[in-house]
Every structure is written in C-alpha cells, then in structure tokens.
Amino acid sequence: MKQVKATCLIEVIVKLSGFFFTKRQRPNPNENGEECSQIPITNQSIPFLSNPNATPQTPITNQSIPSVSNATPQTPCSNQRNDNVDLKDLPKDPTGRPLITSYKPNIRDDVRRGYLLQGPCQSVKKNNAYCLYCYLCGLLMGQKGGRDAFGSQENAPKNNQLISPEIKKELVQCFAQEVLLSVREEIGQDVFALLVDESSDVSKKEQMAIVLRYVDSHGFVKERFIGLVHVKDISSLTLKNAIKEVLTSNELSFSQIRGQGYDGASNMWGEFDGLKALILQENDTTSYVHCFALQLQLVVVAVAKKHDGVSDFFEQISLVVNVVCASCKRKDLLREQARERVQKGLCSGELETGRGLNQETTLVQVGETRWGSHFNTLTSLMKLFADVLIVLDFVKDEGGSLANCQQASGILASFKSYEFVFYLHMMYDILHLTGTLSKKLQRKDLDILEAASMVRGTMEALQSFRNIGFAIILPKVSSFFSNTRN
Questions:
Q1: Which long-range contacts (CB under 8 A, 24 or more apart) does 49-57 make?
Q2: Which whole-number Å values give the CA distances from 377 to 9, 291, 383, 464, 476, in the listed order?
Q3: Is 143 within a domain?
Q4: What is the pLDDT of residue 83?
C-alpha cells in the first residue's frame, strides 16, 4: 500500500514539474479536453527523492508503475497554431492577442513566458482594462481566457454595473470611513488641536467644517478634515454638541484637545458663552489661538473702512470690474487691446521676452472676505489700466442704455484723476506687504517665534512706508498718470 501511494505521489510531481519547469516534448491532453498522444512514464523520468530520515522502502521499478506505452496513438489537436511562433514578436495589444488555447500545448508555456517578459500593455484600440495574468493562466484556474476586459460597463452584467446614485454614494461613504479610520489610528490616545469654521452653502444651509491638527508617530504635523456637519443654528452650544457628536463617532473626546482655532466671531471666541469658553469648561488645558492671518485681514479691513478715500477707491474698483467683465464682448475687447499693447511693447523693446512674461490676464473679481483678492485685483488693474480706459470709452459711447453710459462715464472720470492713481499705487504697496505676511503666516511649518518675528518686520516696514514711502511713490504716480493720459 505504501509503495502504491509513493508511486501516485511521484506521478503527480513528475506531471507538475514537467508542466511548470520543462518544455513538453509531445502534446498532452490540452485545456479543451481533447486527448493527444502521451509519453510513457519510466523510472528514468522520475526524479530521485532522498530523505535521510525516511524508512527504507522497496525500490520503485517499471513494474510498479502502470504503463501507458501501449495506449492508442491519438491524432494531434486541431485548430491550433504551428510551432513557428516568434516569442519576441508576440501581439502586444490585448484586443489582438489570440487565445492561449490556440497555441499548441508544447509551446504554450513558452508563450506565457514571452508575455510575462513583455509585461502588461494598455490597449490602443479600446479604452478598457485587461488582466495579463488572467489571459495567461485563466483556463488553469477555471476562468475565461482573460482576453475580455474587466471594469467596463459593456462587459458588466446589466444588473451589476454599480452606476446608480445610491451605490455611488455608498462607495464614497466607504472611502470616507476608511480615511477616518486611518486618522483615528494615527491619533490613537494622543492629543490634537481642533479647527472649526462655519458658513452657509449655496442652498443657505449652515455647515460646520471640522479639522484636526496633530503630530503623527514620525514627528510630522498633519491637518486632516474629518467632517462637514449641518447645524440648525450657529449658537455656541449647538456647535459644541455637533463637535462632540463627531468626535465621539470617531472614538475621540474633548480630553484629548490641546488647542482651539476659530475665526473672530463672537459665538466662536466669546469669553463667557462662546465655543472657546464651553470647551474650556470641558477641558481647562485647551488653549485658544486666533489665526494670525485672519487677524491681519481683520485689521486691514477695519482700517480701510475707516478711511473715506480708501473706501471710495475700492468701491470704484468693484464697479469697474463689474462693468468691464459684464459681457463677453467687453472681455474680448479687453484681451484684444492687451494683445496689441504687448505686441507694440515687444517690437519697441519696452517689454522683455522670457518664460512666464507677458501672459494673457484679465481683471480679477474682488472678494469681500478675502483681502488677498484685493491685491490681485490691483495687480491686474495696473497691468491693464490703459486697456480698461479704452473699454470704458467703448461702453460710454455704445453702452446701449443710458444708465450704462452714465455709469461708464462716471468711472472713467474717476480713473483719469490723479487721486485715483495715487490710491492705486499706495494701496498696491501696502497690500503687497500685508499679503506677503499673510501667505507666510499660512505656512504649515511655521512656528510661533518665526511668526512673531514676521509680524514685527511687517510693522516696521509699514512704519517706514508711512514716514518716507510717499516721497518714493510720488514720482511713480506722476509718471504713470502722464503715460495713461497720452
């Protein structure tokens, strides 16, 4: 009985080793089930297996193995490719590859090795994904030949295409849960800072965004968005309960909070009933830090609104952007004038050529809550000042309605005044200083000492501009004013 079992085991080993590691000399039964001529198994074809701890057994001879040499010869398999296959020039496009079963069994392993050496290829005929390993070994695993594309709606069953809105939302929710799980694993029982901001969306629903700031195990500071929560109102108690619910659902708690960061609204940082105070009641080790960049913007807004001349200047800026960008015809005229001006400047040598220079630009819309956009608007206006005057002249003459003509005429009169040009240069220099500081304060790798040093440096620069800056910008204002009037 032991001898029979050993014989069967050796037969299996011989067949497997011959299939995966040696080239077949004669056709074996192919994958289609058609019988081909077989090779009789002899003791010379059986590898010697040695095991020093095994019990000596009776040697295996030809008589102990069922002979198949007397089997009736079968006709070679039909509908198969010949042996003259150039393994270095196999069809690469998945849509043009013949099935593995079309090759003769004695060269299929060589064809498989050839395709493995080539590696996967993307089809140039169809925008589908193909699995190379399914193509090579699909029949061995009881699957199809692997030439069919997967991940395509054309090949997917009609009742299993995963394209309904509900399924798409479920997939997005699954991804969100995986992201939140990774954030929870990174934080663990460690501490973090809480960043919260609320605003209303286009549907006039109050939404609260929650971000966690923490240091991972490798010492890198990370900020991760963990949720957008709809709140019925923006009272501090409602916001606190919503934050607590989000933290609890992610297995976090108020006891892990070590920092708070909100905007300057009274419901957020109020000393007695603000969100900051309510969280401090839960955890007295939670310190509140007001965003320096936001504080800077609040200061610039407050100062600008207190000065009548600057306030009127920005009102005129908003009007000119709305008038010039009100129609596609006016935008096209602005681009055409800018293109002609650049061409003349390049021909005369007034403008330099180079990578990134003289790019097409347009007026930037002013954002009331983002004073960085004011600087971008002034930058584009200084470049397109002469072109804007031409567009305003066009609107004044051919504006269509009397109101449009009068509005363009009033803006044009203001733009041609020396006072407007002076405010344009003055606010450009001031916002350039504050904008540079604002961008630096938003760096992720900024520490508190470096931030304080930057604030002091900007204050000194503003004070120096106040003392001697007007004498510097007046020549530039006069030159700019005279050039635009010509």
A1: 49/10, 57/2, 57/3, 57/6
A2: 83, 24, 10, 25, 19
A3: yes
A4: 62
Task: Report the pLDDT value the prediction gives residue 297, as an integer from 0 to 100.
Answer: 75
Q: What is the DSSP code (8-state) at residue 96?
A: G
Q: What is the DSSP letter of 33?
A: S
The position carrying tokens 């604002």 is: 438
Q: SS3 string of 134-154? A: HHHHCCCCCCCCCCCCECCCC
Q: Specify whether the CB–CB gap between 213 and 222 falls below 8 A.
A: yes
Asked if 46 contacts 10 with a C-beta cutoff of 8 angstroms, the reply is yes
Tell me which DSSP letter residue 103 carries: S
Residue 412 domain boundaries: 296-485
Pick from 87, 76, 138: nearest CA to 110:
87
Beta bridge partners of 150: 129
> Within this chain, do residues 351 and 388 fall inside the same structural domain, yes or no?
yes
378 contacts: CB under 8 Å, gap ≥ 6:
317, 424, 427, 428, 431
Please report whether residue 183 resides in a domain. Answer: yes
Asked if residue 435 and residue 383 are part of one domain, the reply reads yes
In a shared domain, residues 323 and 440: yes
Residues 115 and 227 in one domain: no
The answer to whether residues 338 and 474 belong to one domain is yes
> Is the residue at 157 inside a domain?
yes
Answer for the pair 323, 392: CB distance below 8 angstroms, yes or no.
yes
210's tokens = 């929650």
* Low-confidence residues of the chain: pLDDT under 50: 1-10, 12-80, 141-149, 151
**Looking at residue 383, what is its pLDDT?**
85
Query: Which CATH number belongs to the domain containing residue 217 in this structure?
Result: 3.30.420.40
pTM exceeding the 0.90 threshold for the entire prediction: no
Assess contact for 27 and 96: CB atoms under 8 A.
Answer: no
Which of residues 141, 161, 181 is at a domain's end?
Answer: 161
Contact 76, 109 (CB under 8 A): no
Q: Are residues 184 and 279 in the same domain?
A: yes
Long-range contacts of residues 136-139, Cβ cutoff 8 Å, at least 24 apart: 136/100, 136/112, 137/112, 138/100, 139/31, 139/100, 139/101
The verdict on residue 73 lying in a domain is no
Same domain, 31 and 99: no
Distance, in Å, from the CA atom of 336 to the CA atom of 346, rounded to the nearest integer, reads 15
Residue ranges in 264-327 assigned as alpha helix (H): 266-269, 275-282, 292-306, 308-324
Amino acid of residue 150: F
Query: What's the confidence (pLDDT) of residue 161?
Result: 62
Phi, psi torsion values for 229, nearest 5 degrees? -110, 135
153 and 177 part of one domain: no
The domain total for the chain is: 4
- Domain stops at, among 109, 136, 161: 161
Structure tokens given for 445: 């790798």
